[in-house]
Write the structure tokens for this entry.
Amino acid sequence: MKLMENKKIKVAFPHMGTIYIAWEMALKKMGVDAFIPPYTNKKTLSLGTKNSPEAICLPYKLILGNFIEAIEGGVDYVSMIASPGICRLGEYGRNIEQVLKELGYNTNYVELNLYDGFKGLVDYLVKISGSKNYFKIINAIYLSIRTVFALDELQDFLSYYRAREIKKGESEKAFNRSLNLIRNSSNIKELSKALKTGLREISSVETDKKREVLHVDLTGEIYIVNDEFSNQYIERELGAMGVQIRRSLTVSSFLKDAIIPKIFKKGETHLERAYRLAKPYLMRDIGGDSLECISDVLYAKERNIDGLIHVSPFTCMPEIMSQNIFPKMREDINLPILTLIMDEQTGRAGYITRLEAFVDLMRRKKIKSKINNKQSEAPSSSDVA
Ligand code: SF4
């Protein structure tokens, strides 16, 4: 189905961190105009909240807010993802479509069905561009997948340098410059060059080599983990406290599990690891990212890192289940775990206080274990004799 004859259409999609760059690249390759609404902000949140049921989860409200801002900016189509899993996400698209109609917006709605994996992506691009040039479509998908991997790699670099930088904010500035380079590339060769330059830029940030950095994994519901506005810039806050964050749930790990055909995958995927590790606490997928979150606690422990933070939206059913399993895990595993529930009411001051207290706890635990190790290494008098 071709959406519009002889007209370059403008398509918008919701924000989730830096994912808009990968979307934009795929659409550009297909000759479609990607309309990028303003990055999620307080106005977006208020538009979404005003037009949503109170108890619905935060990502829904923010996505609706993004769409309203896009429509008011003159977009022709809004696209939404329907994704595999046993949670409300499958229903959100239709709800949002209905709400937009009730608000009097006549913008078209188009869904990207990730239940069908790679085929879902192909079908979406055919629908949105009207083109059945499969060579072009595969090229667009390949470029956007490689972009997602590049963005996640840059994010890892940012996290490393931000926790060690001497001048506050330098790594993030270099990261933002790198995003622009990535965004301006139009093929794989340019993308690889942009990534290399971006990584070099971030690594040139001056660091304090002696800083005692804590290592923390960030897990939870995928949208909140990857979207800075909804997690209240948690990585920036922790970076300033000398904490290096590793996102356990990334868009690239999701792509490996849901989109990339098996023959192109190397090693164990996140979901495969989740099934292997989560078993003593959770036997099956209960929707959202719960299985992955439970296994991420065990994976963090396996690597002996300093702690784990779990972020989730208020009323997210799968993550409520995870939070109910954590107390049992805390009894069995000596790993600091902090759970944070986000919604439009989450106040900044209390949030920062909780982060500071958690960092303090991890530091004291680390110092204590260093002292214990030293004591157990100290020679006895008979050794000296
Ligand atoms: S996983 Fe949770 S937050 Fe995400 S869509 Fe489902 S219910 Fe909402």
